[in-house]
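pasting for ref
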Amino acid sequence: MVGPEDIVAPVAGMDDQELESVVGDDVLDDDLAEDDLVDDDEDDEDEDEDEDEDDLGSLEEEGDIAADYIEGLLDIADLDGDIDMDVEGDRAVVSVVGATLDELVGDDGEVLEALQELTRLAVHRKTGVRARLMLDVGGFRARRRAELADLGRSMAAEVERSGEPKKLRAMSPFERKIIHDAVALAGLRSESEGEEPHRRVVIFPAK
């Protein structure tokens, strides 16, 4: 039986330039709040609707490709799991649910992160477009999002009380984005510092 470590092994040997073309901006630009990007140009409504339909169609195509790829990996590893596809905002979301999927998550989601990069690469090779899709396994990301939001709020409250900056442990881009959002909602400022995989969030008191 092929294990999860055998499935994700290609990540370690992947050409750096190839992998960066798929995931580079997502890793480097986690400080940017995507929802804060505003387009000041007013386009024709019909054109907007056409573009929205095109975007939705592209995201659905990404989801289909990703689902087929993940289904193939599950077959190789002899693992059972049902695959759900959705579109959230400007990215496709593929979720795998089942009773025997903990090994596809790994410690702190490390295996899941590797699987997500492999899936993005598979989509990129099919479409020629860098994919931003999110992969979840067994609801790990949903649970982790709630935990990290609580952590971000509590750390922001601690910084507000002490008036001193607080440096958190190293986190993935997905985790850092949640912390940044929680800190911003608390009215404080946060930044990421360091290099992957040791990049971490620093929370600063309000000026």
